[in-house]
Design brief:
- The protein is an alpha/beta fold and 173 residues long.
- It has one domain (10-172): Vaccinia Virus protein VP39 (Rossmann fold).
- The chain contains 7 helices and 8 strands, in the order H-E-H-H-E-H-E-H-E-E-H-E-E-H-E.
- The chain has helices at residues 10-23, 41-54, 56-62, 76-80, 95-101, 113-116, 150-161; strands spanning 30-35, 63-69, 84-86, 102-105, 108-111, 119-123, 136-141, 164-172.
- The structure holds S-adenosylmethionine.
- Residues 1-2, 4, 9, 36-38, 41-42, 69-70, 72, 125-127, 142-144, 147 line the site of S-adenosylmethionine (SAM).
- S-adenosylmethionine binds next to helix 2.
């Protein structure tokens, strides 16, 4: 698992947010898969940027985020799901966002319940080449593919493609 920063990969995430914003009015639900989400700093960054862009009400009513990782260190339950992070993970977050979406507790910060409530966590090995669902509007896979061989990457992308709604997109680096 990766101990990463919030507000990293903002360029890629902003592209996803713009894509979702374009689709939000025409759909009852927007489904996003964050594949290989690590400790979910990027997942929650995406969730916060989405809430800022489409408004908390639409975020709450329409967004579902499935966050998956192979989770070798079994930290999903103890950390990512609770949304609790040390201050040094949060150094890039603008002050106003920190105040709005986090609460401080014993030198750690917790992502607000409204943001966390739309994120579901699953252990999942991408190299099974089996999807965690269908009808995704967007799949984001950041800093994961380099773990895989070229053939594995091709098969993972193929599996992603068959999990998308028409007009949906894959965002990867
Ligand atoms: C560098 S981290 C990236 C985390 C996050 N996406 C980000 O950009 O901050 C790579 C992640 O890929 C996950 N991973 C590696 N192999 C995987 C696999 N076969 N299936 C699912 N996740 C995997 C690792 O557990 C790790 O959390």
């Amino acid at each position: 698992m990766s101990f990463s920063q919030f507000y990293k990969n903002v360029e890629l995430i902003s592209e996803l947010v713009a894509h979702v914003k374009n689709r939000i009015n025409n759909q009852a639900e927007i489904r996003i898969w964050d594949a290989g989400c690590g400790m979910c700093q990027s997942t929650y960054t995406m969730a916060i940027l989405l809430a800022e862009s489409i408004g908390l009400q639409s975020y709450s009513d329409k967004i579902t985020i499935i966050a998956t990782d192979i989770d070798e260190l079994r930290t999903f339950k103890s950390s990512a799901e609770k949304g609790i992070y040390p201050k040094n993970n949060l150094l890039n977050i603008p002050e106003a966002i920190l105040d709005k979406y986090f609460s401080e507790n014993n030198a750690h910060y917790q992502v607000s319940e409204i943001i966390r409530s739309k994120v579901q966590f699953k252990r999942h090995d991408l190299l099974t080449f089996k999807s965690v669902g269908t009808d995704f509007d967007a799949i984001i896979c950041s800093n994961v593919m380099h773990h895989f061989s070229q053939i594995e990457q091709f098969k993972v992308l193929d599996m992603f493609t068959s999990s998308l709604k028409p007009g949906a997109m894959i965002f990867r680096i």
